[in-house]
Backbone:
């Protein structure tokens, strides 16, 4: 399993979602890819939150698939 989330979502942002997942023993090891239009500004925050991949917009399908494949092989 891999979770793909955006930073900005209604009700809860991607960082809040990640915090909840990382605090739950059943989901704490779930690989997370976060998509953001401002990836450079959020790189440190994403690393501290436990995001595995911060992917900046625009991105190619091939790039996303390569990250998914790499995360699934861990």
Residues:
């Amino acid at each position: 399993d891999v979770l793909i989330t955006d930073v900005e979502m209604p009700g809860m942002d991607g960082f809040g979602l990640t915090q909840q997942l990382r605090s739950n023993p059943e989901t704490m090891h779930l690989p997370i890819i976060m998509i953001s239009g401002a990836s450079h500004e959020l790189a440190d925050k994403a690393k501290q939150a436990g995001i595995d991949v911060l992917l900046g917009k625009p991105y190619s399908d091939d790039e996303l698939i390569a990250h998914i494949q790499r995360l699934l092989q861990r």
